Amino acid sequence: MLECRKIIKDFVGVRALDGVSVRFGAGRVTGLLGENGAGKSTLMNIIYGLIRPDGGEMRYRGEVYSPASPFDAISAGIGMVHQSHTLIDEFSVLENIILGAEPSGALGRINRARAEKRLSSILAILGFDLKPRRRVATLDPLQKQIVEIAKTLHREADFIILDEPTALLAAPQIERLFEVIRSLRENGKTVVLVTHRISEVEAVVDDVVVLRRGRVQAACKKAQTNRQELVRSIVGDEAAEREESRILYADTEAEPAAQPESISSKAAKETLLELRSVSTAAGAEGVPLRNLSLKIAGGEIVGLTGVPGNGQTVLFELLAGLTTPASGRIFYKNEKPGRGGFTGLRRLPAGYIFADRDEQCLIPEFTLAENMLLSSRKVREFSKCGVIKRHALTDFAERSAREFDIASAGAMKPVRILSGGNRQKVVLARETAAPLEMLIAMEPVRGLDIKTTGDVRRLLLGMKADGKGILLITGDIDFLMTVADRIGVLYRGDITYISVRRELDRATLGNAMLGYS
Count of domains in the chain? Predict the structure, then answer.
Protein backbone atom coordinates (compact mmCIF):
# COMPACT_ATOMS: atom_id res chain seq x y z
CA MET A 1 0.00 0.00 0.00
CA LEU A 2 2.81 2.39 0.92
CA GLU A 3 6.42 1.93 -0.08
CA CYS A 4 9.47 3.92 1.02
CA ARG A 5 12.53 3.75 -1.23
CA LYS A 6 16.00 4.73 0.01
CA ILE A 7 14.73 7.51 2.31
CA ILE A 8 17.44 9.80 3.70
CA LYS A 9 17.08 12.47 6.38
CA ASP A 10 19.75 14.55 8.18
CA PHE A 11 19.35 16.73 11.28
CA VAL A 12 22.10 19.16 12.31
CA GLY A 13 24.89 16.86 11.26
CA VAL A 14 23.15 13.66 12.44
CA ARG A 15 21.87 11.18 9.84
CA ALA A 16 18.50 10.04 11.18
CA LEU A 17 17.57 7.89 8.16
CA ASP A 18 20.19 6.32 5.93
CA GLY A 19 18.62 4.83 2.82
CA VAL A 20 15.52 3.28 4.43
CA SER A 21 13.48 1.06 2.12
CA VAL A 22 10.36 -0.60 3.50
CA ARG A 23 6.88 -1.58 2.41
CA PHE A 24 3.67 -1.47 4.49
CA GLY A 25 1.10 -3.95 3.18
CA ALA A 26 -2.57 -3.05 2.74
CA GLY A 27 -4.97 -4.29 5.40
CA ARG A 28 -2.15 -5.40 7.71
CA VAL A 29 -0.74 -4.29 11.05
CA THR A 30 3.00 -3.59 10.94
CA GLY A 31 5.04 -3.24 14.12
CA LEU A 32 7.87 -0.69 13.86
CA LEU A 33 10.59 -1.35 16.45
CA GLY A 34 13.95 0.21 17.24
CA GLU A 35 16.06 1.96 19.86
CA ASN A 36 15.64 5.61 20.75
CA GLY A 37 17.00 7.64 17.87
CA ALA A 38 16.75 4.69 15.46
CA GLY A 39 14.62 6.81 13.12
CA LYS A 40 11.12 5.44 13.78
CA SER A 41 9.39 8.77 14.48
CA THR A 42 11.39 10.48 11.74
CA LEU A 43 10.17 7.99 9.15
CA MET A 44 6.56 8.30 10.34
CA ASN A 45 6.77 12.11 10.33
CA ILE A 46 7.99 11.99 6.73
CA ILE A 47 5.07 9.76 5.75
CA TYR A 48 2.67 12.14 7.49
CA GLY A 49 4.16 15.23 5.84
CA LEU A 50 5.53 16.85 9.00
CA ILE A 51 9.07 16.87 7.63
CA ARG A 52 10.55 16.47 4.15
CA PRO A 53 13.13 13.81 3.30
CA ASP A 54 16.55 14.78 1.96
CA GLY A 55 16.57 11.87 -0.45
CA GLY A 56 14.60 8.89 -1.72
CA GLU A 57 10.97 8.61 -2.72
CA MET A 58 7.64 7.17 -1.56
CA ARG A 59 4.81 5.50 -3.42
CA TYR A 60 1.28 5.24 -2.05
CA ARG A 61 -1.25 3.03 -3.79
CA GLY A 62 1.16 2.78 -6.71
CA GLU A 63 1.48 6.54 -7.22
CA VAL A 64 4.37 8.86 -6.32
CA TYR A 65 3.65 10.30 -2.88
CA SER A 66 5.44 13.44 -1.66
CA PRO A 67 3.41 15.25 1.04
CA ALA A 68 4.41 18.84 1.76
CA SER A 69 2.28 18.97 4.91
CA PRO A 70 -0.07 16.86 7.07
CA PHE A 71 -2.91 18.32 4.99
CA ASP A 72 -1.53 16.47 1.97
CA ALA A 73 -1.27 13.25 3.98
CA ILE A 74 -4.82 13.56 5.32
CA SER A 75 -6.11 14.29 1.82
CA ALA A 76 -4.42 11.10 0.63
CA GLY A 77 -6.07 9.04 3.38
CA ILE A 78 -3.20 8.87 5.88
CA GLY A 79 -3.75 9.63 9.57
CA MET A 80 -1.40 9.75 12.55
CA VAL A 81 -1.98 9.50 16.29
CA HIS A 82 1.01 11.09 18.05
CA GLN A 83 2.63 10.17 21.37
CA SER A 84 1.35 13.43 22.87
CA HIS A 85 -2.35 14.05 22.50
CA THR A 86 -3.40 16.82 20.12
CA LEU A 87 -6.89 17.17 21.58
CA ILE A 88 -8.43 20.31 23.08
CA ASP A 89 -9.49 19.44 26.63
CA GLU A 90 -12.27 22.01 26.86
CA PHE A 91 -13.89 20.81 23.64
CA SER A 92 -16.32 17.91 23.52
CA VAL A 93 -15.56 14.53 21.97
CA LEU A 94 -17.54 15.47 18.88
CA GLU A 95 -15.94 18.91 18.54
CA ASN A 96 -12.44 17.42 18.71
CA ILE A 97 -13.20 14.77 16.11
CA ILE A 98 -14.75 17.06 13.52
CA LEU A 99 -12.42 20.04 14.10
CA GLY A 100 -11.06 21.10 10.72
CA ALA A 101 -13.40 18.76 8.85
CA GLU A 102 -16.81 19.96 10.02
CA PRO A 103 -19.84 18.66 8.10
CA SER A 104 -21.72 21.78 7.02
CA GLY A 105 -25.46 22.25 6.64
CA ALA A 106 -27.65 25.15 5.67
CA LEU A 107 -26.02 28.59 5.66
CA GLY A 108 -22.65 27.00 6.36
CA ARG A 109 -23.57 25.94 9.89
CA ILE A 110 -22.21 22.69 11.34
CA ASN A 111 -24.67 19.87 10.86
CA ARG A 112 -24.37 18.35 14.34
CA ALA A 113 -26.99 15.68 13.73
CA ARG A 114 -25.06 14.37 10.75
CA ALA A 115 -21.79 14.67 12.66
CA GLU A 116 -23.16 12.66 15.61
CA LYS A 117 -24.52 9.97 13.28
CA ARG A 118 -21.12 9.72 11.60
CA LEU A 119 -19.39 9.55 14.98
CA SER A 120 -21.75 6.79 16.11
CA SER A 121 -20.81 4.65 13.11
CA ILE A 122 -17.08 5.24 13.72
CA LEU A 123 -17.31 4.32 17.40
CA ALA A 124 -19.22 1.18 16.42
CA ILE A 125 -16.24 0.15 14.27
CA LEU A 126 -13.94 0.75 17.25
CA GLY A 127 -16.27 -1.02 19.66
CA PHE A 128 -16.49 1.98 21.98
CA ASP A 129 -19.37 3.98 23.41
CA LEU A 130 -18.47 7.61 24.09
CA LYS A 131 -20.96 10.40 24.62
CA PRO A 132 -20.45 12.93 21.78
CA ARG A 133 -20.93 15.93 24.09
CA ARG A 134 -18.66 14.69 26.86
CA ARG A 135 -15.76 17.04 27.58
CA VAL A 136 -12.39 15.55 26.61
CA ALA A 137 -10.79 16.71 29.87
CA THR A 138 -12.94 14.13 31.70
CA LEU A 139 -11.71 11.18 29.63
CA ASP A 140 -9.10 8.65 30.71
CA PRO A 141 -5.98 8.05 28.56
CA LEU A 142 -7.51 5.12 26.66
CA GLN A 143 -10.64 7.09 25.82
CA LYS A 144 -8.48 9.95 24.54
CA GLN A 145 -6.62 7.49 22.31
CA ILE A 146 -9.96 6.33 20.92
CA VAL A 147 -10.95 9.93 20.17
CA GLU A 148 -7.63 10.43 18.33
CA ILE A 149 -8.20 7.28 16.26
CA ALA A 150 -11.83 8.26 15.58
CA LYS A 151 -10.53 11.61 14.37
CA THR A 152 -8.43 9.90 11.70
CA LEU A 153 -11.38 7.74 10.63
CA HIS A 154 -13.61 10.81 10.37
CA ARG A 155 -11.11 12.09 7.81
CA GLU A 156 -11.46 8.84 5.82
CA ALA A 157 -7.98 7.54 6.71
CA ASP A 158 -7.13 4.08 5.39
CA PHE A 159 -3.50 4.18 6.57
CA ILE A 160 -3.19 4.90 10.30
CA ILE A 161 0.05 5.49 12.21
CA LEU A 162 -0.06 4.87 15.97
CA ASP A 163 3.08 6.33 17.57
CA GLU A 164 3.69 4.69 20.97
CA PRO A 165 -0.07 4.47 21.67
CA THR A 166 0.33 2.41 24.86
CA ALA A 167 2.76 4.75 26.61
CA LEU A 168 0.06 6.23 28.87
CA LEU A 169 -2.02 3.09 29.31
CA ALA A 170 -2.22 0.49 32.06
CA ALA A 171 -2.23 -3.24 31.27
CA PRO A 172 -6.03 -3.71 31.07
CA GLN A 173 -6.32 -0.68 28.79
CA ILE A 174 -3.57 -1.95 26.49
CA GLU A 175 -5.46 -5.14 25.77
CA ARG A 176 -8.56 -3.08 25.04
CA LEU A 177 -6.55 -0.98 22.58
CA PHE A 178 -5.35 -4.16 20.89
CA GLU A 179 -8.99 -5.08 20.30
CA VAL A 180 -9.45 -1.72 18.59
CA ILE A 181 -6.40 -2.32 16.38
CA ARG A 182 -7.72 -5.74 15.38
CA SER A 183 -11.06 -4.13 14.56
CA LEU A 184 -9.33 -1.58 12.32
CA ARG A 185 -7.60 -4.40 10.46
CA GLU A 186 -10.86 -6.30 10.07
CA ASN A 187 -12.35 -3.17 8.51
CA GLY A 188 -9.60 -3.04 5.89
CA LYS A 189 -7.40 -0.39 7.48
CA THR A 190 -3.60 -0.47 7.33
CA VAL A 191 -1.99 0.21 10.71
CA VAL A 192 1.61 0.99 11.67
CA LEU A 193 2.25 0.42 15.39
CA VAL A 194 5.37 2.24 16.57
CA THR A 195 6.48 0.63 19.83
CA HIS A 196 9.42 -0.35 22.04
CA ARG A 197 7.64 -3.40 23.44
CA ILE A 198 8.19 -6.75 21.76
CA SER A 199 5.22 -8.15 23.70
CA GLU A 200 2.95 -5.76 21.79
CA VAL A 201 4.36 -6.96 18.49
CA GLU A 202 3.73 -10.55 19.51
CA ALA A 203 0.16 -9.72 20.53
CA VAL A 204 -1.24 -7.79 17.60
CA VAL A 205 0.91 -7.30 14.47
CA ASP A 206 1.20 -9.19 11.19
CA ASP A 207 4.55 -7.82 9.99
CA VAL A 208 7.64 -6.46 11.72
CA VAL A 209 10.14 -3.78 10.70
CA VAL A 210 13.19 -3.02 12.84
CA LEU A 211 15.25 0.16 12.45
CA ARG A 212 18.71 0.61 13.98
CA ARG A 213 20.80 3.74 13.54
CA GLY A 214 18.65 4.89 10.65
CA ARG A 215 18.81 1.65 8.68
CA VAL A 216 16.47 -1.31 8.24
CA GLN A 217 17.79 -4.27 10.24
CA ALA A 218 14.85 -6.59 9.73
CA ALA A 219 11.61 -6.63 7.72
CA CYS A 220 9.49 -9.77 7.72
CA LYS A 221 6.24 -11.40 8.73
CA LYS A 222 5.88 -11.87 12.48
CA ALA A 223 5.62 -15.65 12.01
CA GLN A 224 9.09 -15.66 10.43
CA THR A 225 10.91 -14.32 13.49
CA ASN A 226 10.98 -14.68 17.29
CA ARG A 227 11.71 -12.61 20.38
CA GLN A 228 15.42 -13.41 20.51
CA GLU A 229 15.95 -12.48 16.86
CA LEU A 230 14.05 -9.23 17.32
CA VAL A 231 16.16 -8.27 20.34
CA ARG A 232 19.32 -8.89 18.32
CA SER A 233 18.01 -6.81 15.43
CA ILE A 234 17.11 -3.95 17.75
CA VAL A 235 20.24 -3.74 19.92
CA GLY A 236 22.87 -5.83 18.13
CA ASP A 237 24.45 -9.16 19.06
CA GLU A 238 26.62 -7.89 21.91
CA ALA A 239 23.89 -5.94 23.67
CA ALA A 240 21.43 -8.83 23.21
CA GLU A 241 23.65 -10.96 25.43
CA ARG A 242 23.53 -8.50 28.31
CA GLU A 243 21.62 -9.54 31.42
CA GLU A 244 19.16 -6.64 31.09
CA SER A 245 18.05 -7.70 27.61
CA ARG A 246 17.52 -11.29 28.73
CA ILE A 247 15.55 -10.27 31.81
CA LEU A 248 13.45 -7.51 30.29
CA TYR A 249 12.53 -9.37 27.12
CA ALA A 250 12.34 -12.98 28.21
CA ASP A 251 9.01 -14.61 29.05
CA THR A 252 7.34 -12.05 31.32
CA GLU A 253 6.14 -14.84 33.60
CA ALA A 254 9.69 -16.03 34.17
CA GLU A 255 11.39 -15.23 37.46
CA PRO A 256 13.81 -12.30 37.02
CA ALA A 257 17.45 -12.84 37.84
CA ALA A 258 18.56 -12.23 41.40
CA GLN A 259 18.79 -8.58 42.31
CA PRO A 260 21.80 -7.07 44.08
CA GLU A 261 21.43 -7.34 47.82
CA SER A 262 20.95 -4.09 49.72
CA ILE A 263 23.80 -3.07 51.99
CA SER A 264 23.29 -4.26 55.54
CA SER A 265 24.00 -0.97 57.27
CA LYS A 266 21.55 0.67 59.63
CA ALA A 267 20.98 3.45 57.07
CA ALA A 268 19.87 0.93 54.48
CA LYS A 269 17.10 -0.36 56.77
CA GLU A 270 15.94 3.03 58.04
CA THR A 271 12.56 4.33 56.95
CA LEU A 272 13.29 7.35 54.78
CA LEU A 273 9.84 8.49 53.66
CA GLU A 274 6.54 7.81 55.38
CA LEU A 275 3.01 8.92 54.58
CA ARG A 276 0.49 8.52 57.42
CA SER A 277 -3.20 8.61 56.50
CA VAL A 278 -2.68 11.30 53.89
CA SER A 279 -5.68 12.80 52.12
CA THR A 280 -5.72 15.61 49.57
CA ALA A 281 -8.09 17.78 47.61
CA ALA A 282 -8.90 16.52 44.11
CA GLY A 283 -6.15 17.22 41.59
CA ALA A 284 -6.20 17.51 37.82
CA GLU A 285 -7.15 13.84 37.67
CA GLY A 286 -10.24 14.56 39.77
CA VAL A 287 -9.29 11.77 42.22
CA PRO A 288 -7.95 12.85 45.63
CA LEU A 289 -5.80 10.72 47.91
CA ARG A 290 -7.87 9.04 50.63
CA ASN A 291 -6.13 8.11 53.90
CA LEU A 292 -3.11 6.77 52.01
CA SER A 293 -0.29 5.30 54.09
CA LEU A 294 3.07 4.13 52.77
CA LYS A 295 6.63 3.56 53.98
CA ILE A 296 9.80 3.50 51.88
CA ALA A 297 13.06 2.38 53.45
CA GLY A 298 16.63 2.85 52.40
CA GLY A 299 17.79 0.01 50.18
CA GLU A 300 14.26 -0.61 48.92
CA ILE A 301 12.44 -0.10 45.63
CA VAL A 302 8.68 0.31 45.92
CA GLY A 303 6.52 0.33 42.80
CA LEU A 304 2.99 1.71 42.56
CA THR A 305 0.82 1.02 39.54
CA GLY A 306 -2.81 1.35 38.53
CA VAL A 307 -5.14 2.46 35.78
CA PRO A 308 -4.26 6.12 34.99
CA GLY A 309 -6.40 8.63 36.84
CA ASN A 310 -6.49 6.90 40.21
CA GLY A 311 -4.30 9.35 42.10
CA GLN A 312 -0.87 8.77 40.60
CA THR A 313 -0.29 12.38 39.58
CA VAL A 314 -1.79 13.72 42.82
CA LEU A 315 0.60 11.55 44.86
CA PHE A 316 3.65 12.53 42.84
CA GLU A 317 2.86 16.25 43.00
CA LEU A 318 2.40 15.94 46.76
CA LEU A 319 5.78 14.26 47.21
CA ALA A 320 7.41 16.80 44.88
CA GLY A 321 6.21 19.59 47.13
CA LEU A 322 3.81 21.08 44.59
CA THR A 323 0.72 20.55 46.76
CA THR A 324 -0.04 20.05 50.45
CA PRO A 325 -2.18 17.39 52.15
CA ALA A 326 -5.63 18.24 53.47
CA SER A 327 -5.02 15.82 56.34
CA GLY A 328 -2.44 13.30 57.46
CA ARG A 329 1.31 13.75 57.71
CA ILE A 330 4.48 13.20 55.70
CA PHE A 331 7.74 12.36 57.46
CA TYR A 332 11.31 12.09 56.25
CA LYS A 333 13.47 10.06 58.65
CA ASN A 334 10.69 10.43 61.26
CA GLU A 335 10.73 14.22 61.02
CA LYS A 336 8.61 16.70 59.10
CA PRO A 337 10.53 17.85 56.02
CA GLY A 338 11.49 21.42 56.88
CA ARG A 339 9.74 24.42 58.34
CA GLY A 340 8.73 25.75 54.94
CA GLY A 341 5.67 23.54 54.80
CA PHE A 342 5.68 20.56 52.51
CA THR A 343 7.58 22.46 49.85
CA GLY A 344 10.45 21.56 52.17
CA LEU A 345 10.41 18.23 50.37
CA ARG A 346 12.19 19.88 47.47
CA ARG A 347 15.11 20.68 49.77
CA LEU A 348 15.63 17.04 50.63
CA PRO A 349 18.46 15.03 49.05
CA ALA A 350 16.04 13.55 46.52
CA GLY A 351 15.70 13.38 42.76
CA TYR A 352 12.36 13.86 40.98
CA ILE A 353 11.40 12.54 37.56
CA PHE A 354 8.09 13.94 36.32
CA ALA A 355 5.86 12.03 33.90
CA ASP A 356 5.83 14.71 31.18
CA ARG A 357 9.46 15.30 30.30
CA ASP A 358 8.81 18.07 27.77
CA GLU A 359 6.38 20.15 29.85
CA GLN A 360 7.70 19.50 33.36
CA CYS A 361 11.36 18.51 33.12
CA LEU A 362 12.95 20.21 30.13
CA ILE A 363 13.05 23.47 28.19
CA PRO A 364 13.26 22.27 24.58
CA GLU A 365 14.86 25.46 23.26
CA PHE A 366 17.66 25.29 25.85
CA THR A 367 20.79 23.32 25.05
CA LEU A 368 21.53 19.91 26.51
CA ALA A 369 24.04 21.56 28.88
CA GLU A 370 21.56 24.21 30.01
CA ASN A 371 18.90 21.59 30.67
CA MET A 372 21.38 19.66 32.81
CA LEU A 373 21.59 22.80 34.94
CA LEU A 374 17.85 22.84 35.76
CA SER A 375 18.36 21.64 39.32
CA SER A 376 19.17 23.72 42.37
CA ARG A 377 22.02 21.35 43.26
CA LYS A 378 23.57 21.77 39.82
CA VAL A 379 23.19 25.55 39.88
CA ARG A 380 25.33 25.65 43.00
CA GLU A 381 27.90 23.31 41.52
CA PHE A 382 28.35 25.11 38.21
CA SER A 383 28.08 28.75 39.20
CA LYS A 384 30.19 31.20 41.14
CA CYS A 385 29.04 34.63 42.29
CA GLY A 386 26.03 34.32 40.00
CA VAL A 387 28.12 33.46 36.92
CA ILE A 388 27.76 30.05 35.25
CA LYS A 389 31.01 28.16 34.74
CA ARG A 390 30.33 27.29 31.11
CA HIS A 391 33.37 25.12 30.47
CA ALA A 392 32.74 22.93 33.52
CA LEU A 393 29.04 22.67 32.66
CA THR A 394 29.77 21.64 29.08
CA ASP A 395 32.25 18.98 30.24
CA PHE A 396 29.67 17.63 32.68
CA ALA A 397 26.96 17.53 30.00
CA GLU A 398 29.19 15.76 27.49
CA ARG A 399 30.27 13.23 30.13
CA SER A 400 26.64 12.56 31.06
CA ALA A 401 25.73 12.17 27.38
CA ARG A 402 28.40 9.48 27.03
CA GLU A 403 27.42 7.68 30.24
CA PHE A 404 23.72 7.61 29.33
CA ASP A 405 24.32 7.11 25.60
CA ILE A 406 22.40 10.27 24.71
CA ALA A 407 22.45 10.53 20.94
CA SER A 408 23.04 14.24 20.28
CA ALA A 409 24.99 16.59 18.06
CA GLY A 410 26.72 18.10 21.08
CA ALA A 411 26.17 19.61 24.52
CA MET A 412 25.45 23.04 23.04
CA LYS A 413 22.68 21.90 20.69
CA PRO A 414 19.00 22.40 21.68
CA VAL A 415 17.24 19.49 23.35
CA ARG A 416 14.29 19.84 20.93
CA ILE A 417 16.29 18.07 18.20
CA LEU A 418 16.60 14.92 20.33
CA SER A 419 14.20 11.99 20.12
CA GLY A 420 11.73 11.51 22.96
CA GLY A 421 13.75 8.68 24.47
CA ASN A 422 16.96 10.70 24.39
CA ARG A 423 15.21 13.60 26.11
CA GLN A 424 14.14 11.18 28.83
CA LYS A 425 17.78 10.17 29.25
CA VAL A 426 18.71 13.82 29.81
CA VAL A 427 16.23 13.97 32.71
CA LEU A 428 17.51 10.72 34.20
CA ALA A 429 21.12 11.85 33.92
CA ARG A 430 20.39 15.18 35.61
CA GLU A 431 18.26 13.86 38.46
CA THR A 432 20.64 11.05 39.43
CA ALA A 433 23.91 12.96 38.99
CA ALA A 434 24.00 14.69 42.38
CA PRO A 435 24.31 12.86 45.73
CA LEU A 436 20.84 11.82 46.90
CA GLU A 437 19.12 9.54 49.38
CA MET A 438 15.84 9.07 47.51
CA LEU A 439 14.52 8.96 43.98
CA ILE A 440 10.82 9.56 43.27
CA ALA A 441 10.04 8.81 39.66
CA MET A 442 6.85 8.76 37.61
CA GLU A 443 7.04 6.72 34.40
CA PRO A 444 10.88 6.65 34.37
CA VAL A 445 11.15 4.28 31.38
CA ARG A 446 8.30 5.63 29.26
CA GLY A 447 9.45 5.81 25.66
CA LEU A 448 12.78 4.13 26.35
CA ASP A 449 14.20 1.37 24.19
CA ILE A 450 15.44 -2.05 25.24
CA LYS A 451 19.01 -1.01 25.91
CA THR A 452 18.17 2.13 27.87
CA THR A 453 15.45 0.43 29.89
CA GLY A 454 18.08 -2.11 30.89
CA ASP A 455 20.48 0.71 31.77
CA VAL A 456 17.82 2.32 33.98
CA ARG A 457 17.15 -1.00 35.67
CA ARG A 458 20.85 -1.42 36.43
CA LEU A 459 21.04 2.19 37.68
CA LEU A 460 18.10 1.70 40.05
CA LEU A 461 19.42 -1.58 41.41
CA GLY A 462 22.79 0.07 41.97
CA MET A 463 21.14 2.90 43.90
CA LYS A 464 19.23 0.35 45.96
CA ALA A 465 22.46 -1.52 46.75
CA ASP A 466 23.91 1.80 47.97
CA GLY A 467 21.03 2.17 50.45
CA LYS A 468 18.90 4.63 48.50
CA GLY A 469 15.11 4.58 48.78
CA ILE A 470 13.22 4.56 45.47
CA LEU A 471 9.54 5.06 44.66
CA LEU A 472 8.43 4.24 41.11
CA ILE A 473 4.94 5.26 39.96
CA THR A 474 4.30 3.62 36.61
CA GLY A 475 1.86 1.61 34.53
CA ASP A 476 4.70 -0.58 33.22
CA ILE A 477 4.07 -3.73 35.25
CA ASP A 478 6.67 -5.76 33.35
CA PHE A 479 9.38 -3.28 34.34
CA LEU A 480 8.27 -3.26 37.97
CA MET A 481 8.43 -7.06 38.01
CA THR A 482 12.14 -6.89 37.14
CA VAL A 483 13.16 -4.25 39.66
CA ALA A 484 10.74 -3.61 42.56
CA ASP A 485 10.84 -5.23 46.01
CA ARG A 486 7.19 -4.43 46.68
CA ILE A 487 4.43 -3.53 44.22
CA GLY A 488 1.20 -1.79 45.18
CA VAL A 489 -1.93 -0.71 43.34
CA LEU A 490 -3.48 2.76 43.48
CA TYR A 491 -7.24 2.70 43.11
CA ARG A 492 -9.42 5.75 43.68
CA GLY A 493 -6.74 7.50 45.66
CA ASP A 494 -5.69 4.72 48.00
CA ILE A 495 -3.33 1.74 47.97
CA THR A 496 -5.77 -1.14 47.87
CA TYR A 497 -3.23 -3.93 47.31
CA ILE A 498 0.48 -4.30 47.99
CA SER A 499 2.70 -7.36 47.98
CA VAL A 500 6.30 -8.47 47.97
CA ARG A 501 7.20 -8.97 44.31
CA ARG A 502 8.22 -12.60 44.66
CA GLU A 503 4.82 -13.40 46.16
CA LEU A 504 2.90 -11.33 43.63
CA ASP A 505 -0.02 -12.85 41.82
CA ARG A 506 -0.58 -11.15 38.46
CA ALA A 507 -4.28 -11.99 38.34
CA THR A 508 -4.79 -10.42 41.76
CA LEU A 509 -2.78 -7.40 40.66
CA GLY A 510 -4.91 -6.96 37.54
CA ASN A 511 -8.12 -7.32 39.52
CA ALA A 512 -6.92 -4.72 42.04
CA MET A 513 -6.24 -2.27 39.20
CA LEU A 514 -9.86 -2.66 38.14
CA GLY A 515 -11.17 -2.32 41.69
CA TYR A 516 -11.90 -5.99 42.37
CA SER A 517 -9.47 -6.56 45.22
Answer: 3
